[in-house]
Design a protein that fits this description.
Immunoglobulin-like; Arc Repressor Mutant, subunit A; about 450 residues; 3 domains; about 45% helix
Length: about 450
């Protein structure tokens, strides 16, 4: 072994001694790009730590500590390495994208990964595995249209196709899966309405009978996914109505006017009985907001909207202050990257957990009591509810981003939005530009990143 080779070995050994990986999450996109969230445990007494990334070509690298503060870094000596300014930092998350993990050959794409730690892998939407290789996953979970696999350390190689195989066997398996999903939903919730999913299943059966196997697989997959969504919305709307009824009852007991709220709850129950589960929570939210309104108004919804417009005007002023504060904080952190943190409690905090990890919990658990929002968040949420009511043409993903921005005090970085919803950069950019054309958001540069903030001036009436 030459001196140069010994130096390289020593250099790599020193790197591995300075940090360890606490968790690793990989999400594959339909264009072959992989989003990686790599959580590392650092030695806070070491000023600089070299961390090896999983890919030589890396895009959109973002490094944060457990408090959500940016961690300074620079490129390492080798491609796919970064040097973190780790003084005073015990845990960090590195988020980035790389095209290096997927090999594309025709329709068959292969994900290859050699890891010394266990990891979770989220497959692309509408992907079908055709070869799991030699190492089988420790667990497999289906989350809507995507599969979540967990693996032990080792070499993992998975071949898959985007779309449908179009074989008779695959269409039969897909149809059987949809039948089981619908039957299970109806057994667990006898009152649930699954007519739309059953219609899709019928189309799948007709397509298979006509030997249109790709169409059969497409329709049956849609039926299966729709059943999952219907079940989730059924449980969520059922819980929302129950929570709304309790809120109205408590308000009535302390003398609040609840007539408008009761009318809206009745409307929510009517929508629930028709199977319009996705509409129920919005109506229940309006009912909660309306508590205390004047019952003499024959059109309580318009009274609510008028009140929300005033509240949102106030929230704009609060929002501007918060955004200015956020911008200043970002600029200060950007200018002072590399300095030690004043708070030395980071050693005692647990490593961050991947925020984008999907959970396999039953749908009913999604409606547990959430933390009480601040007054500013409540005002923003009300304003977003009004916006969604006024603009029903907005896509579901656009609506989710607006709600997420409201939860984040009205502003979030584009990278935060991308990691939250696990979408490719191009998809997020098109979504953001759509909302910008609607004059619902504004894009600003802050610390070298795109800051997306809610914009209400263009929608006030």
């Amino acid at each position: 072994m030459g001196s140069e080779e010994r130096n390289v070995h020593s250099y790599l050994q020193t790197k591995s001694d300075r940090y360890s990986i606490s968790s690793l999450f990989i999400a594959l996109f339909s264009d072959g790009t992989a989003l990686i969230e790599q959580d590392v445990v650092l030695n806070p007494s070491i000023p600089n730590t070299v961390v090896a990334l999983y890919g030589r070509s890396v895009d959109g690298l973002n490094v944060m500590d457990y408090k959500g503060k940016s961690v300074g870094y620079q490129s390492g000596q080798q491609p796919g390495e970064v040097i973190l300014n780790s003084s005073g930092i015990s845990n960090a998350r590195l988020s980035y994208e790389t095209p290096d993990l997927v090999n594309k050959q025709g329709r068959t794409w292969t994900f290859s990964f050699n890891s010394t730690t266990g990891f979770s892998l989220k497959l692309p939407t509408n992907s079908t595995i055709i070869d799991l290789g030699k190492q089988f996953p420790a667990s497999v979970t289906q989350i809507g249209e995507q599969g979540l696999l967990t693996f032990h350390p080792g070499h993992v190689q998975i071949s898959y196709v985007i779309g449908y195989l179009g074989t008779e066997a695959q269409s039969s398996a897909s149809i059987e899966s949809a039948v089981i999903a619908i039957q299970d939903a109806r057994n667990r919730y006898p009152r649930i309405i699954t007519a739309d999913a059953q219609n899709l299943l019928q189309q799948a059966l007709m397509a298979k009978a006509s030997k249109k196997y790709s169409d059969a697989e497409k329709f049956s997959t849609a039926a299966n996914d729709l059943t999952i969504n219907i079940t989730r919305d059924y449980v969520a709307s059922q819980n929302a109505i129950g929570t709304g009824q309790l809120e109205v009852q408590k308000a009535a007991e302390i003398g609040h006017n609840t007539s408008a709220a009761r009318a809206l709850l009745s409307q929510a129950e009517n929508e629930f009985s028709k199977g319009h589960y996705s509409r129920v929570k919005t109506i229940v939210d309006e009912a909660t907001i309306s508590i205390g309104n004047n019952a003499s108004n024959p059109f309580p919804v318009y009274a609510i909207i008028g009140g929300i417009a005033v509240a949102s005007t106030v929230s704009v002023l609060v929002l501007r202050k918060k955004i200015i504060h956020k911008l200043l904080r970002v600029e200060i952190e950007h200018d002072s990257v590399g300095g030690p943190l004043s708070d030395d409690s980071s050693d005692r905090r647990p490593p961050p957990q991947p925020s984008s990890f999907p959970t396999a919990s039953p749908p009913a658990q999604e409606e547990k009591v959430l933390p009480v929002p601040t007054a500013e968040q409540t005002d923003l949420s009300r304003a977003v509810i009004r916006i969604l009511a006024e603009r029903p043409h907005l896509r579901p993903e656009d609506q989710r981003v607006l709600k997420y921005l409201a939860e984040k005090d009205g502003a979030a970085f584009e990278s935060e939005v991308r990691n939250k919803f696990l979408l490719p950069k191009t998809t997020i950019w098109r979504l953001v530009k759509r909302l910008e054309r609607e004059e619902l958001i504004e894009i600003m540069k802050a610390g070298g990143q795109n800051l997306i903030k809610l914009r209400f001036e263009g929608v006030e009436r």
